[in-house]
């Protein structure tokens, strides 16, 4: 089954590639890998929620936002790859979580992204990952996701 077919079975539509909010490109290919810039959980060009996880945003809502940001990262990678079917595997995922100083469940938030890649790619979605707590993110986003894939 192709990745496009798998997305259709899951009822997932890849969003349009988000326009950069500064001086960078959404993704770039070097050799057989594509890396994305940090992708925010933008939906139709805006953030559905802003604030810190552990204060204004719950852990569960943040995991959902990580899933949205991961889809945006996948769209950027697929654009450079010439289509999502050209992506062979997910290599690395980095999830930044804007959270309060006492919030320590960044890995649970990052699971929103990791589980999505498992649903889409199966075993080829298994990846290395970092989940990092930060004081703030651009535009007040609760999460940002970086992705590296192999083509």
TrEMBL record:
Signal peptide bounds: none
InterPro entries recorded: Endoribo_LPSP/chorism_mut-like (IPR013813), RutC-like_sf (IPR035959)
Chain ranges of the Endoribonuclease L-PSP/chorismate mutase-like domain: 4-143
SUPFAM superfamilies on file: YjgF-like
Protein name: Endoribonuclease L-PSP
Organism in which the protein naturally occurs: Cutibacterium granulosum DSM 20700
């Amino acid at each position: 089954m192709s990745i496009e077919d798998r997305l259709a079975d899951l009822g997932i539509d890849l969003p349009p590639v988000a326009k950069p909010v500064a001086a960078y490109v959404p993704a770039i290919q070097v050799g057989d890998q594509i890396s994305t810039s940090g992708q925010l959980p933008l939906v139709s060009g805006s953030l559905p929620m802003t604030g810190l996880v552990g204060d204004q945003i719950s852990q569960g809502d943040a995991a959902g936002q990580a899933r949205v940001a991961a889809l945006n990262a996948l769209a950027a990678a697929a654009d450079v790859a010439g289509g999502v079917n050209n992506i062979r595997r997910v290599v690395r995922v980095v999830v930044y979580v804007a959270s309060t100083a006492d919030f320590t469940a960044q890995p649970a938030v990052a699971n929103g992204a990791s589980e999505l890649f498992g649903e889409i790619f199966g075993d080829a979605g298994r990846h290395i990952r970092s989940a990092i707590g930060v004081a703030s993110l651009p535009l007040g986003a609760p999460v940002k996701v970086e992705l590296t894939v192999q083509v």
